[in-house]
Amino acid sequence: MTLSLLSTLGFSLEERHLVAYMLGLGLLAIALESVWRRPVAPDRGAEAPSPKRLRLGRGAQDALLSVGMVLLWVLWLVGAMPGFWLLLVIIGLPLANITIRRAVEHLLQPPGAPQVGEGPPSVIEVSLERGLRALLIIGAAALLAWG
Fold first, then answer.
1. In the chain, pLDDT over 70 holds for what percent of residues?
2. Is the pTM of this model over 0.85?
3. What is the DSSP letter of 29?
4. Which residues, 6 or more positions from 43, have their beta carbon under 8 angstroms from its beta carbon?
């Protein structure tokens, strides 16, 4: 919107590109700040780490997300939009899956329950989580097909 307004105000193409790059740098700084200052998830104590899954430490996760954010910005900067959309899906889909799982657990938690995630999940919880995950995957595929 800002760039369209600058065009209306008579800014040249080079000036609009400079403003776009500065705004992009600002968004990159905000993204990096949000990665490094995000709250720590509560420890689930009862969950034993699965031997099949590789668990990265908090610092490694932050470093990988930071590299991904910088790569996204560079891909946008050079105009490699298919690579940009692919990397966005690669970074965003797992994060969205985690968010959906936590949101479904929280929404279906009975009032006054002491802790989320105790015992096996209900059929409604599993169905809702899997349905939302399927919608996410369909949306990601549509985004990649469009981009």
1. 85
2. no
3. H
4. none
Tell me the two tokens of residue 107.
Answer: 């929404």
Give 68-104 pLDDT, tens digit per residue: 999 999 999 898 999 999 999 999 999 999 999 888 8
- Counting Cα atoms < 13 Å in the Cβ hemisphere of 72 gives 21
Residues 67 and 93: beta-carbon distance below 8 Å = no
Q: What is the mean pLDDT of residues 132-138?
A: 95
Residue 66 in contact with residue 35, Cβ under 8 Å? Answer: yes
Count of H-run helices and E-run strands, the chain: 5, 0
**The tokens of 7 are what?**
């065009």
Distances 21 to 4, 26, 58 between C-alpha atoms, Å: 15, 9, 30
- CA distance readout (Å), 121 to 41, 104, 110, 138: 20, 10, 12, 24
